[in-house]
Amino acid sequence: MIPPRPIRLAAAAYPVERLPDRSALAGKLADWAARAADADVLVFPEYAGMEAALAGGPATASVAEWCGHAAEAADWYVSTLRALAVRHGCYILAGSLPAQAPQGLVNRAFFLSPDGAVAHQDKHILTPWERRETPLCAGDGLHAFDTRLGRIGVLICYDCEFPLHARALGADILLVPSCTDLPAGDARVRAGARARALEGQAIAVHAPILGAVEGCELVDQNRGRAGIYAPPDHGFPADGVLARGAMDTSGWVFADLEAGAISAPRSRAAVNVPGHWNESATAAPPVSVTF
Q1: Which residues 6+ apart lie within 8 Å of 218 measured at CB?
Q2: What is the pTM of this model?
Q3: Structural domain 7-282, CATH architecture
């Protein structure tokens, strides 16, 4: 149920770094959360949780070893951010990290509620690099979170480039944490997030990781810009951009949605992509191939 009140969304363009210990990382996370404490949803990027493995960790390790270190640190990382969600009365999407699942290690983002509840979403479609270089495997299903803000779904990085995932979630707000090493990768995720917003008449919150950490190939080079996007239709900006940060510039990007901003355009939009989806799938004309 979408609440009849304003909603504030926050996307982190978050700089990854090697901190001396977990105490320093807890302080960093507390500072970041405090700077966005007036937001209803805080979104951290893909692989931002690697900081929990890096803090006090080895100078260098193989990708498989880093994945193992992250899985061992996952409980501490989640409990630290869970406490911040409770303290500030907000929902937090924790930065994803390798975590142990029955089928093996997965790339998991934990969704933390202001009442202390903990849920998660795993990455489903691994990139070619992840398939080739990491021990990670696909996650355990799609999870939609029915919250006091409406239905929230998570598509981790590459997953947002596949429309059927977003359609299955049926979310009002899509959270898209990402980790890309080149501007082209960031542009692909941003294009995917904007397309999913258009198709689902939803809001997409894109949070990228920034910076570089030597000795950890998972986060050794990161580029991006945070952004929050809507369908370009009635009630939203003509280009669908609610907020967007500068390239490779760390900090929070905020968007404020007026009361009813998500639900109202669905009843008076110029187009109705969700309503016509089945028609497009079943009534496609035959294809004639010519030279």
Answers
A1: 47, 50, 63, 66, 67, 134, 179
A2: 0.95
A3: 4-Layer Sandwich (3.60)
